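To: structure subgroup
Subject: Chain for Friday's discussion

All,

I'm putting the inputs and outputs inline so they're searchable in the archive.
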Amino acid sequence: MTLSSPLTVLIADDDLVLRAGLASTLQRGSGLTVVETASGAEAVKIAEETGPDAALVGARIPALATSGTIKDLTAVAPVVLLAFPGDGEAVREAVAQGAAASLVYGSFTPPELAEAVRAVARSGAGQDEVDAIIGVRGPAAAAALRADSGLTEREAQVLRLVAGGMSNAMIADHLVVSEKTVKNHINHIYAKLHVRNRTQAIERWRAAETVGV
């Protein structure tokens, strides 16, 4: 692999919707090649056959903690665990088996995820570096908008994903909610920010990011 060569990312998650959403997120405009599987054992087999540059593994794959999947995968490529709030035990076990870092669903935008994958694959970035990529502007911008406009934590999260380039359908898949729920959140965001459309809402987010840096 050279700095200019395209990266291949293996995604392993038994949730088809989440897996498809991640694949779409990484392939859209990022230049990343994606290989998918629903099984931890299959992930190891595919990794050994294809030699991916990084692997994204869902924390809730059955028997992940006892199967040795993470340890086997790290022998081939750096692993980033994708978890939900409450998956702390799975995260700790994955780190113990050699995972480079973990990310929580809903805490990152598509560009941030792609950047984190590149950092892990190209330079061996760990948790601190990944946290820096994901959290440089987002939390500060969200806090500023919540204080200024009364956005809820979920509304700020949705706005961040909108600003990251996600469609309503992608956000729904990403947060595991209905598209109608996402639309409701966005309408509330418009009302609270006193904006008329997506472009104006994103402008408010970008302004908050700049202030927060």
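Points worth raising on Friday:
The beta strands are 8-12, 33-37, 54-58, 79-83, 101-104.
The first strand starts at residue 8 and ends at 12.

D.
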